[in-house]
Design goal:
The protein is mainly alpha-helical. It contains four helices and no strands. 69% of the residues lie in helices and 0% in strands.
Length: 94
């Protein structure tokens, strides 16, 4: 039986091929980490929304020539993670 990483890597490869962008490197773990931060800092449904918007922003930045695809992706993931962490509720006072 395949583990989650193997299943996700295969799914990612299938998605990239279907969208004809198989040559783009995607840091799957960074995307999943962002999803986790958004889910726990905002609300669970924020995870797919946050990763979609970060990916869209990265694609637009790379497509417009603002930065290469790797830099665009890293910057978008970093900004989205910062924004999500800023939304985390403050710890309860004891």
């Amino acid at each position: 039986m395949e583990n989650n990483d193997e299943l996700l890597e295969a799914w990612l490869a299938k998605l990239l091929a279907a969208f004809e962008i198989a040559d783009i490197e995607v840091d799957m773990h960074a995307v999943l980490n962002l999803a986790g931060v958004a889910a726990h800092s905002v609300v669970r449904p924020a995870a797919p929304l946050t990763t979609f918007v970060a990916g869209l922003a990265a694609g637009l930045a790379a497509g417009s020539g603002q930065a290469g695809s790797a830099q665009s992706m890293a910057s978008a993931l970093d900004l989205a993670k910062q924004l999500a962490r800023a939304e985390a509720p403050a710890p309860a006072a004891e």
